[in-house]
Predict the structure.
Amino acid sequence: PRSTLFPYTTLFRSAWVRRFRASLNCPNRGSGIGRHRMANISINHHIHHITQQDENYCWACAFAMLKGKRTWEQALAVADGVPTSARDRNSGALINPSAAANAAHLRARWVTQLTPGDLVSDLRRGPVAIFGVYRLGRVFRHVMVLSLMIGDTAVPNAVRVGVDDPWASGNRWIGPWSDFCGAGRTLISPEYVVSR
């Protein structure tokens, strides 16, 4: 007698099923169901903006925002928990972001390039602080907190981000990733990503 499984085994060997499976596994292939499913993201973390009141404490404000703090005083308390080996004793400027993050019970990783897709797993846990070289009228080392990302991470120009700058006083900037990160943009060269 013939197997009752014959119709099913034929179906699962069919070209249609192979194309369907390929469309689910690869966000840039196929059409219809599953297309770009893994690349689309919509994350929006509410944070309280903390404005730095000393030019060397942007890092403390960023760490405090990641930890859900609300005030400059709370940012200073976070800074006090970081050993002096990770920051300058006189100015408070950060010397070692990785050691400082560890002391504040945060995660740090060194980066040389950054795409929206690189930040997804960090952003799922909460907002992220991006240390690097920034252009804000002048070029200098700084940190900003990214708390919003919406769009297709496979197409960076289609992604919108929300960024809080501790140097600014208050509002989160929301705009295209391509206006935030890259040559000639605000974030010229990323160095560290710090997250929860």
Summary: Residues 5-12, 19-37 have pLDDT under 50 and may be disordered.
